[in-house]
Specification:
The structure holds two protein chains of two kinds. By secondary structure, chain A is of the alpha/beta class. Chain A is built from six helices and five strands; from the N terminus they run H-H-H-E-H-E-H-E-H-E-E. Helices cover 28% and strands 8% of the residues of chain A. Chain B has five helices and nine strands. The chains are: A alpha/beta, B alpha/beta. At the A-B interface, loops of A face helix 4 and helix 5 of B.
């Protein structure tokens, strides 16, 4: 028998600092209270009694980025809105995480070919969990949140794979794009995202 | 609803110098509209709003249309007399209509419960002569929609009290809903490109396309 379990039977609880630390982090992910389009309605539904995101410790939607741990990018990010979204992310204190919720936040969705929609928030922000759907149901958002919790629980606090804020060389903020004459400048944060390369189909 | 012919003569009587043209709609909708001239448009709009039996007190929709230069082919029957014999032949006449930007207003009367009356305004061309009188002083609901037309089509509404871009940012140079707008080349690879998307992919990846 494992020694921890044997000790627990005698009323002694042992853990590691890492486990305790991650347990605390993952069970109080307070999202930033903002929505961009119809996905936000599903996010609101997830916070209500029927789906009850409070079961996962994420019910405290904060109206200020200074108090938030999690940014749920719920909806279409227009090019006009993109710098503000990045700025809000920069204003959040570490540790912070990003969920891209819905087809638009992932890739631009049905508006990808449009002139005013950003082709995915992952061009500017380090997204932890992508939730596909148009819009994703509240269960999908809860699943995404649980995936993020698993990801946090598995993070070591030292060595490779540690969270960005414990890495001295990690970036502390991500540059906001600026409004250009024809498009956002730059088109993406190259440290985070590279445009996809061409594959076989083009040659045929 | 008043017949457009009658409306046209009443406008001509009420607003001196106003030119009104009735534009037929040959489609199934069969919704003809009236085309106003720029200098008298606001006076005519006031007339349409204030006349008791018209009372178009609500502009529900303002939209823009970009017309490039078009060639319209019309078939006309021509009678010819050759050697005392009259023969009827069909001839095709090509007519060019100049390029212009058009603004369309849909007017309703809440008081009298009739409408829509479709009113059009046209600019002189698409580059330089793009100014039109704003109808926001007449119908307040035009304010945002005229801003949107200004933003996306580039029509300058004279007399609009707050003519800024609505959807795109200040400093954006293009007018995206114009026919000749070219989006910046920001193509992303798709798994199964075809037709237009394939053309864009070939333009975006010229070296890879040349190898194929």
């Amino acid at each position: 028998m494992e020694p921890e379990i044997e000790l627990q039977r005698h009323g002694v609880f042992t853990t590691t600092v890492e486990q305790l630390y991650n347990w605390g982090r993952k069970n109080s992910l307070w999202p930033l209270q903002f929505g961009l389009a119809c996905c936000a309605i599903e996010m609101i539904a997830a916070s209500m009694a029927r789906f009850d995101i409070a079961r996962f410790g994420a019910e405290v939607f904060r109206p200020s980025p200074r108090q938030a741990d999690l940014m749920i990018v719920a909806g279409t990010v227009t090019k006009k809105m993109a710098p503000q979204v990045v700025r809000l992310y920069n204003q959040m204190p570490e540790p912070k995480y990003v969920i891209a919720m819905g087809a638009c936040a992932i890739s631009g969705g049905p508006f990808k070919e449009g002139y005013n929609v950003l082709k995915g928030i992952d061009r500017y922000l380090p997204v932890d969990v992508f939730i596909p759907g148009c819009p994703p149901r509240p269960e999908a958002l809860l699943h995404g949140l649980m995936l993020l919790q698993k990801k946090i629980a598995a993070q070591p606090l030292t060595g490779p794979g540690r969270p960005r804020y414990l890495d001295q060389n990690g970036p502390s903020e991500f540059p906001c794009p600026s409004y250009g004459a024809h498009d956002l400048e730059p088109l993406c944060n190259h440290a985070l995202w590279q445009p996809p390369s061409v594959r076989e189909e083009l040659h045929s | 609803m008043i017949a457009l012919e009658e409306l046209k003569s009443r406008i001509a009587a009420a607003v001196s110098g106003a030119q009104v043209e009735i534009i037929p709609n040959p489609s199934l909708a069969n919704q003809p509209s009236i085309l106003l001239d720029g200098p008298h448009a606001r006076a005519v709009a006031r007339f349409l709003r204030d006349e008791p039996d018209l009372a178009f007190d609500y502009a529900s929709n303002v939209t823009g249309v970009d017309w490039p230069e078009r060639v319209i082919k019309e078939k006309i029957k021509v009678k010819k007399e050759t050697g005392g014999v009259v023969s009827e032949t069909e001839e095709t006449i090509e007519r060019k209509t100049p390029a212009c930007l058009e603004v369309v207003y849909h007017l309703y009367s809440m008081a009298l419960r009739h409408g829509p009356l479709v009113v059009r305004l046209r600019t002189g061309d698409r580059q330089n002569d793009v100014a039109l009188p704003s109808l926001t002083p007449v119908w307040r609901s035009c304010e945002f929609q005229e801003r949107e037309v200004f933003d996306l089509f580039g029509v300058i509404f004279q007399g609009h009290h707050d003519l800024r871009r609505l959807l795109m940012w200040e400093g954006f140079k293009d007018h995206p809903m114009r026919k000749d707008y070219v989006a910046p080349d920001d193509y992303e690879y798709e798994p199964t490109p075809h037709d237009q998307t394939l053309e864009r992919a070939r333009r975006h990846y010229p070296q890879e396309a040349a190898q194929s």
